[in-house]
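The pair is quoted verbatim underneath.

:::
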Amino acid sequence: MIEFSEIIRLAFKSIKRNKGRTILTALGIIIGVASVILLTSFGQGLQQYVTDQFEAMGANSVYVLPGQIGGSEGEISFSQGPPNFSGSKLTLKHVEDLSRYGGPIKAAAAEIDMPALVSYRGENKYTTTGGISEQWGQIVNIQVNKGRDIRTSDIDNRRKVAVLGQSIVDSLFGSSDPIGKNISIGEERFEVIGIIKEIGTQSIGFDIDNFVMIPVTVSQHMFGQENVQNIMVQARSKDDIENAKDATKRVLSRDLEEDDYSVVDSSSLLETINNILGVLTAALGGIAAISLVVGGVGIMNIMLVSVTERTREIGLRKAVGAKESDILTQFIIEAVVLSVFGGGIGILIGWGGSILINQFFPAVVTMWSVILAFGVSAAVGIVFGVAPAVRASRLDPIEALRYE
């Protein structure tokens, strides 16, 4: 029996002898591994991004949404449909009652979001206009960088004032100061009183830099809304979230039915979103893994061709004492080396690609995805290398030596 080290040497020698074919054979594995790492990094990056944004908003937020979105205790389900904002029965009185409640509730605020065209001296910007009450910015951790925020007096007196996101300021005013100037939102004119501190896209569903805040009462009048889309409640601490949810339900149940609203906390929302993104990540990884199977089939085909090309060589080796197990081992080693070689290059491409893409889109490479992709690539070499190896080992030495 030939020594194992000699079998490995012969396997590597055979691979080096056909460099072009080796690279082409490994290409399927390279593409498969790189695809798995890249696509799973997208999913992981999106999950991490959403988590970071929720934490930036504050982990002690409670959301009151119109309608019953379903789900058991501690879970959220949209089996009964998404929140019905147009049929909301939530009012500013509910916000006032929650704000005055005290105890576990630190603050409460209303919100009405509508798309709108913002204009200034011929410059236009399509954006989201948010009608908010005074404490909304505090709850979602949004600060005014210049000027002032919307006050209670603005809301009570329906003053047409606006606080602009930074990208709107850049688009409409360039480098000039917008404070005190008048802009048009739809057909109405508003005085700019503040600029939102630049923050970027938030997990609450829009880009804060491309956002206009106006008094909620003005928004109700402009868009014909008597009620509010949703209410945000801030608990005094993370430990008070459950008590704040119970208190919110007690306040709302005074004049609303149980099916008229849903009370959820940010951790429940985050868990639900992450579950959805987790399934998406797994699906993307599964789709990419198909490339690994295709690459494995490619390895098997090339190895079968190699057996045919090396029939006389195999016959000669068996004639001088090589056993079936020696031939079998050598061909399996060749297949595994091709897979591992392709897997290594695929990891480098996938990792490097993820780092590059992360400059434009959140992408996080996790060690489990690298280990999984590399492990699968090695397994592919073993699985798809068995058939050619068995065929080579079973060749009759006499017939092999006669092969032309």
Summary: The chain has two domains: 4-52+273-402, 106-232. Residues 71-83 have pLDDT under 50 and may be disordered. The chain has 13 helices and ten strands.
